[in-house]
Amino acid sequence: MYATNYHRASSVDEAVKLLSDAPDGKYVAGGMTLIATMKQRLASPSDLVDLRHIPTLKGIRVDGRTVTIGAATTHAEVASSAAIRAVCAALCDLAGMIGDPHVRHMGTIGGSVANNDPAADYPSAMLGLGATIVTDKRQIAADDFFTGLFETALEDGELITAITFEAPEKAGYAKFPNPASRYAMTGVFVTKGAGGARVAVTGAGADGVFRHAGMEQALAANWSPDAVANAVVDSSTLMSDLHATAEYRANLIKVMAKRAVAAA
């Protein structure tokens, strides 16, 4: 590590002001990615603005089928929320699969979404649910939010304050986890709602999380695991690494999609 200035913000306005005054500052909540990156000296922010003590960034509210989750809400809190489970159990199941207990009790939904790791779980849920990412400046549809590997539509200094979505009629999530990190080597989040079916894939795309139009069309016509079995998955758009080839991930997308639909 190296010297950095630490600030504990007590409000969103204070956090934004502290970051704007810093020459090269970063927001930090759970720090599950940022602190590890700093330890490896791959990032060296001049200032860290701690968001963990801002009350308005925490909490879960379910009003009918409208779900609002504060950005600083931890994965463990999402996983254990009876209110969310009553309308969208798949999101609770997803949160319960993230990392290990330490990660789940420190990491936050806002941090995960803002980081947009290509193997993270939450981005697929955001796309699959057609969620809205609320910031201190605006509201961004999930379809417009994720723009590439570790890239989002967030502007410099923009802060995610909440996630909101309408709970679908059905939802399911399945992933093939890396046995060490528990990151998704391939994960698929599926939903069925008034607007049809949505299928979002994480951990496999060469450009990050994406929706699979072919599977969405198949499920809109026939909501069953068999409907996605014959879908065409183009391996040329998928990543290859030491864990799995693109061709292997293409097959995993089908397998995880079938399991997600069955879970839903």
TrEMBL record:
Gene3D superfamilies: 3.30.465.10, CO dehydrogenase flavoprotein, C-terminal domain, Uridine Diphospho-n-acetylenolpyruvylglucosamine Reductase, domain 2. The keyword Flavoprotein applies. Keywords: FAD, Flavoprotein, Oxidoreductase. It comes from the Bacteria. SUPFAM superfamilies: CO dehydrogenase flavoprotein C-terminal domain-like, FAD-binding/transporter-associated domain-like. InterPro entries: CO_DH_flav_C, CO_DH_flav_C_dom_sf, Diverse_Substr_Oxidored, FAD-bd_PCMH, FAD-bd_PCMH-like_sf, FAD-bd_PCMH_sub1, FAD-bd_PCMH_sub2, Mopterin_DH_FAD-bd. The keyword Zinc does not apply. Residues 1-170 form the FAD-binding PCMH-type domain. This is Xanthine dehydrogenase family protein subunit M. It comes from Rhizobium calliandrae. The lineage of its organism: Bacteria, Pseudomonadati, Pseudomonadota, Alphaproteobacteria, Hyphomicrobiales.
